[in-house]
């Protein structure tokens, strides 16, 4: 009897469960081979078009970086005609209060690019999950000898896993960018007289723009390499022992 609150176990006859599992495996194998021969080429062409779009071309730094202007001060601090903050001579810079109502917005260009690239990264991660399962299901039972083809399967599996890991790390990188930028922006708000902090925000944005652009290029190249290695070794992957045995005689 299942415990209170737990998901009840579905009662399926053993023969039916075995048949459904076999059908599931067969469907995954078909999906993986369709992915390799039909879908990945389309993914490559799509990413190539994305790279040709204006947003992903290397632009002048002022176009993809956002130099944050110091917010308008309030209260006793005043601004002179040149835009410099004039503090009470007795007041230290490090005691400058937070400026109420100040708002520094996101870099809209980078926000737009992130919305384009993050789904592409997630897509590659999911594609790699399917390809890994496909290879693993094709690995034969453990036997002594005649494992040359199995070694090729494992090598291909390692390459797919490496691509998947790199793509997943990009999603974490976006989060780190926002955290890093937020820290720099908070310094601008707290110390508006210090131009270096405003420059830091610009540098963070520029670095992220280059990172996003290079990552899209990496995505395209990863798909090309996956397609190349899997199609070149398709025979050994599908029949690791039979393929090797046929070449021994």
Automatic annotation (TrEMBL):
<dbReference type="GO" id="GO:0061136">
    <property type="term" value="P:regulation of proteasomal protein catabolic process"/>
</dbReference>
<dbReference type="InterPro" id="IPR003185">
    <property type="entry name" value="Proteasome_activ_PA28_N"/>
</dbReference>
<dbReference type="InterPro" id="IPR003186">
    <property type="entry name" value="PA28_C"/>
</dbReference>
<feature type="domain" description="Proteasome activator PA28 C-terminal">
    <location>
        <begin position="104"/>
        <end position="246"/>
    </location>
</feature>
<dbReference type="GO" id="GO:0061133">
    <property type="term" value="F:endopeptidase activator activity"/>
</dbReference>
<feature type="domain" description="Proteasome activator PA28 N-terminal">
    <location>
        <begin position="16"/>
        <end position="60"/>
    </location>
</feature>
<dbReference type="GO" id="GO:0005737">
    <property type="term" value="C:cytoplasm"/>
</dbReference>
<dbReference type="GO" id="GO:0008537">
    <property type="term" value="C:proteasome activator complex"/>
</dbReference>
<protein>
    <submittedName>
        <fullName>Proteasome activator complex subunit 3</fullName>
    </submittedName>
</protein>
<dbReference type="Pfam" id="PF02251">
    <property type="entry name" value="PA28_N"/>
</dbReference>
<dbReference type="GO" id="GO:2000045">
    <property type="term" value="P:regulation of G1/S transition of mitotic cell cycle"/>
</dbReference>
<dbReference type="InterPro" id="IPR036252">
    <property type="entry name" value="Proteasome_activ_sf"/>
</dbReference>
<keyword id="KW-0647">Proteasome</keyword>
<dbReference type="GO" id="GO:0005654">
    <property type="term" value="C:nucleoplasm"/>
</dbReference>
<dbReference type="InterPro" id="IPR036997">
    <property type="entry name" value="PA28_C_sf"/>
</dbReference>
<dbReference type="InterPro" id="IPR036996">
    <property type="entry name" value="PA28_N_sf"/>
</dbReference>
<dbReference type="InterPro" id="IPR009077">
    <property type="entry name" value="Proteasome_activ_PA28"/>
</dbReference>
<comment type="function">
    <text>Implicated in immunoproteasome assembly and required for efficient antigen processing. The PA28 activator complex enhances the generation of class I binding peptides by altering the cleavage pattern of the proteasome.</text>
</comment>
<comment type="similarity">
    <text>Belongs to the PA28 family.</text>
</comment>
<dbReference type="Pfam" id="PF02252">
    <property type="entry name" value="PA28_C"/>
</dbReference>
């Amino acid at each position: 009897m299942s415990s209170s609150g737990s998901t009840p176990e579905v009662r399926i006859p053993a023969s039916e469960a075995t048949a459904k599992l076999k059908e599931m495996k067969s469907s995954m194998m078909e999906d993986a081979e369709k992915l390799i021969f039909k879908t990945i080429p389309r993914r490559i062409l799509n990413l190539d078009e994305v790279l040709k779009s204006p947003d992903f071309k290397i632009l002048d730094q002022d176009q993809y970086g956002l130099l944050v202007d110091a917010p308008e001060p309030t209260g006793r601090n005043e601004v002179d005609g040149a835009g410099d903050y004039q503090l009470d001579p007795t007041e230290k810079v490090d005691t400058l209060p937070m400026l109420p109502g100040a708002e520094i917005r996101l870099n809209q260009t980078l926000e737009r690019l992130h919305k384009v690239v993050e789904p592409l990264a997630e897509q590659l991660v999911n594609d790699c999950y399917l390809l890994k399962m496909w290879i693993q299901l094709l690995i034969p039972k453990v036997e002594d000898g005649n494992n040359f083809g199995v070694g090729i399967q494992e090598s291909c599996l390692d390459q797919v896993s490496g691509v998947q890991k790199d793509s997943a790390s990009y999603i974490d990188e976006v989060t780190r960018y926002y955290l890093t930028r937020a820290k720099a922006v908070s310094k601008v708000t707290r110390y508006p007289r210090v131009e270096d902090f405003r420059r830091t925000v610009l540098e963070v944005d520029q670095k992220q723009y280059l990172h996003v652009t290079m990552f899209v290029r990496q995505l395209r190249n990863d798909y090309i390499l996956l397609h190349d290695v899997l199609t070149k070794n398709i025979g050994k992957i599908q029949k690791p022992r039979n393929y090797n045995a046929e070449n021994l005689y």
